[in-house]
Automatic annotation (TrEMBL):
Its EC number is 1.3.1.12. Belongs to the prephenate/arogenate dehydrogenase family. This is Prephenate dehydrogenase. Pfam families: PDH_C, PDH_N. It catalyses: prephenate + NAD(+) = 3-(4-hydroxyphenyl)pyruvate + CO2 + NADH. Residues 294-361 form the ACT domain. It comes from Streptomyces indicus. InterPro entries: 6-PGluconate_DH-like_C_sf, ACT-like_dom_sf, ACT_dom, NAD(P)-bd_dom_sf, PDH_C, PDH_N, Preph/Arog_dehydrog, Prephen_DH. Pathway: Amino-acid biosynthesis; L-tyrosine biosynthesis; (4-hydroxyphenyl)pyruvate from prephenate (NAD(+) route): step 1/1. It is an enzyme of class 1 (oxidoreductase). The lineage of its organism: Bacteria, Bacillati, Actinomycetota, Actinomycetes, Kitasatosporales.
Length: 361
């Protein structure tokens, strides 16, 4: 691949352009908002000048509702040798293209499984896709050269290619992305009119659950409008679980010992089902989840503190597998949770104490 055209210079499009540009591909940028394309160009993502002729690959990075029309326009004017989109749903846009009667041998639907709460070109980074799955949904009609160009794009962005059927992809993202986003928003909505004294008690748990609720509602309306059926089916299942959980909690209020026992059993069931599902979430590098030991270190909110902890862990010969910071409400302090191999946790704790760190039990 020597040349590419990125149509849509939001977070995903600009990030892909930055990655390609950094690896020697000449990237042309286009957007319905010329100012956004100019912003992406100013960030080093390419040029907002149109290409002189067909490029090797056209990357359509627009909302799902506009994918088919944008692709159809690019194909009809012969903008590229190959075309792909990066929308978060795959079956709908393909059906729309088929209904338009276009030759789809030059097209492949894709979806990089990466993003941020922030949108737009200013949020873009060249490393956004590194190590992340990038789904490809070829069909029997997909030309081999088109598939190879898509794989080259994934490699240049240092992502991990995953081949799936389009409908299976849409059901999967409904489960692992679209439905959780709505549930997160529903939990966060409980905080809108909550008492300030209650909100001040927020800890890491509520921050984890509500983090993705900060995303742009307009973007998510586009996404959910393109995949409503699978998401609705999953929410119906969650609703049934909620009804059973409410019934179990009400039973715990009963004066009848048998009902209280039934309620406790119902709560235990849902919690254990949660345990069973959570352990299936892939761990580091996509491997099976690993049970890490946590070493919790008290830290002040001052420059260089995190660097010191990591340096001290390195001097102790310990690799930190993961890290989480829990901030103290209203204070310039917090707790850094270092996740490490259980075999080295005692050595790390001892080394950090020797270097003056206060550990939390």
């Amino acid at each position: 691949m020597r040349t590419a055209l990125v149509i849509g210079t939001g977070l995903i499009g600009t990030s892909a352009a930055l990655a390609l540009q950094s690896r020697g591909v000449t990237v042309h940028l286009a957007d319905h908002d010329p100012e956004q394309a100019r912003t992406a160009a100013a960030l080093g993502a390419g040029t907002d000048e149109p290409p002189a002729g067909p490029v090797d690959l056209a990357i359509v990075a627009v909302p799902p509702a506009h994918v088919a029309a944008t692709l159809a326009d690019a194909m009809r004017r012969g903008a590229a040798r190959a075309y792909l989109d990066v929308a978060s749903v795959k079956a709908g846009p393909r059906r729309e293209l088929e209904e338009l009667g276009l030759d789809l041998s030059a097209y492949i639907g894709t979806h990089p499984m990466s993003g941020k709460e922030r949108s737009g070109p200013l949020a873009a980074t060249a490393d956004l896709f590194e190590g992340r799955p990038w789904v490809l949904t070829p069909t029997r009609a997909t030309d081999t050269e088109v598939l190879n160009l898509a794989l080259e794009l994934v490699a240049l962005c240092r992502a991990v290619p995953v081949v799936m059927d389009a409908d299976a992809h849409d059901r999967a993202v409904a489960l692992v992305s679209h439905m959780p986003h709505l549930v997160s928003s529903m939990v966060a909505a409980r905080l809108e009119n909550a008492e300030e004294t209650a909100v001040r008690l927020c800890g890491q748990g509520i921050r984890d659950v509500t983090r993705i609720a900060a995303s742009d509602p307009r973007m998510w309306i586009d996404i959910l409008s393109a995949n409503p059926g699978p998401v609705a089916d999953l929410l119906a299942e969650v609703s049934a679980d909620l009804d059973e959980t409410v019934t179990a909690l009400r039973a715990l209020q009963s004066s009848d010992e048998a009902k209280r026992q039934d309620g406790a059993a119902g709560i235990e069931t849902v919690l254990r089902r949660g345990n069973a599902g959570q352990v299936r979430v892939p761990g580091k590098h996509g491997s099976a989840p690993t049970a890490y030991e946590t070493v919790a270190v008290l830290i002040s909110d001052q420059p260089g503190q995190l660097a010191r902890i990591f340096a001290d862990a390195g001097m102790a010969g310990v690799n930190i597998e993961d890290v989480r910071i829990e901030h103290a409400t209203g204070q310039q302090a917090g707790v850094v949770q270092l996740f490490v191999d259980p075999k080295v946790a005692p050595a790390l704790a001892g080394a950090l104490r020797d270097r003056g760190w206060a550990l939390r039990q």
